[in-house]
Amino acid sequence: MESQVGDRIHVHSTVVGQGDRQGEITEVRGPEGAPPYMVRFDDGQETLVYPGPNAVIEPQV
User: Residue 57's CB: how many other CB atoms inside 10 A?
Assistant: First the structure.
């Protein structure tokens, strides 16, 4: 998985009743676009994310 600052990340929930999360990648800490990513989620929370198989990266256009 590769990404760059400004890309969007969609993390699909694996828990029934819990919604998906979406946010913007604000920092790429791995080499050559690799995880981990600092993400600012749409609810304002910022956290370090190591995306799993339930995450999708939407490139910035």
Answer: 18
- Which residue shows structure tokens 């956290």? 47
> What ranges do the domains of the chain cover?
8-58
Return the higher-pLDDT residue of 38 and 14: 38
How many Å separate Cα 17 from the centre of its chain?
A: 20
pTM recorded for the entire structure: 0.89
3-40 burial string, b = 16+ CB within 10 Å, else e? beeebbbebeeeeeeeeebbbbbeebeeeeeebebbbe
pLDDT in the model for residue 12 = 93
